């Protein structure tokens, strides 16, 4: 609890805003459940929880910045962060469920999914920003300029694995061989490359917009 309190206090204004958006999403979801007597969209809670993990990993690293001085520890933390990062952007693909809802609730469901998608995507962008801030202590600006687009592409590929092959981040622990084999076989297909490049470019462009805007403050 103390660690979470410290994470919250590190950037109180930003984290308060994220909590406010989370509360807004929760109210929309509970309201829909109340009027429909259905928990159809409750999977969004789990997806949003997964979306917060990479952000929390780097917020924790900021609190214990000395652990990043060790190369092995830094590699483990970076790998863990990278495995969970696609979850932040994955929620955007949950719009596919819109057609499964009630026609009379189409616009409400659109706002509901959009709210969760924006919040998840925001967690991902802020996580990328924290990655840049933390790792700029150990790598040059040129190195980061190369690494970040690659991370965005890999995040796009991670979303592809989740949406089309139905893999999850924890499969690296529970079913690593199948995940690695199928990921390697799929990576070089035209469909996977196109989706990863398309989704990765969206992530990268929005990150650049955010980074440019922050640089002017």
In short:
The chain has helices at 2-10, 12-36, 43-63, 71-90, 106-135, 141-164, 171-174, 176-187, 190-215. It is an all-alpha fold. The relative contact order is 0.11.
Write down the overall mean pLDDT. Answer: 89
Please tell me what the overall shape is.
Answer: globular
- Detail the poorly predicted runs: none
What is the SS-derived class?
mainly alpha
Quote the beta fraction: under 5%
Biggest β-sheet description: none
Distance between the termini: 32 Å
Helix content: over 70%
SSE series = HHHHHHHHH
* Number of strand elements: 0
Output the radius of gyration. 18 Å
Number of helices: 9
Tell me about this structure.
This protein has 217 residues and is mostly helical. The protein is 79% helix and 0% strand. The protein contains nine helices and no strands. The chain has helices at 2-10, 12-36, 43-63, 71-90, 106-135, 141-164, 171-174, 176-187, 190-215. Helix 3 (43-63) runs antiparallel to helix 4, helix 5 packs across helix 9 (190-215) and helix 6 (141-164) crosses helix 9. It is globular, with a radius of gyration of 18 Å. The two termini are 32 Å apart.
């Amino acid at each position: 609890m103390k660690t979470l309190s410290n994470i919250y206090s590190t950037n109180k204004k930003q984290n308060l805003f994220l909590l406010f958006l989370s509360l807004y999403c929760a109210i929309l979801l509970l309201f829909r459940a109340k009027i429909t007597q259905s928990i159809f969209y409750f999977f969004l809670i789990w997806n949003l929880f997964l979306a917060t993990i990479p952000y929390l990993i780097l917020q924790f690293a900021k609190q214990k910045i000395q652990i990043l001085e060790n190369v092995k520890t830094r590699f483990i933390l970076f790998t863990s962060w990278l495995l969970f990062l696609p979850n932040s952007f994955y929620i955007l693909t949950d719009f596919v469920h819109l057609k499964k809802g009630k026609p009379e609730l189409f616009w409400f469901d659109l706002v509901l999914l959009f709210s969760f998608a924006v919040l998840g995507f925001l967690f991902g962008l802020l996580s990328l920003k924290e990655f840049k801030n933390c790792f700029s202590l150990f790598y040059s600006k040129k190195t980061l300029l190369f690494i970040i687009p690659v991370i965005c592409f890999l995040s796009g590929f991670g979303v592809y694995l989740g949406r089309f092959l139905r893999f999850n981040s924890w499969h690296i622990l529970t079913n690593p061989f199948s995940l690695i084999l199928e990921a390697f076989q799929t990576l070089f297909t035209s469909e996977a490359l196109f989706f990863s490049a398309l989704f990765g470019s969206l992530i990268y462009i929005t990150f650049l917009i955010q980074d440019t805007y922050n640089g002017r403050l």
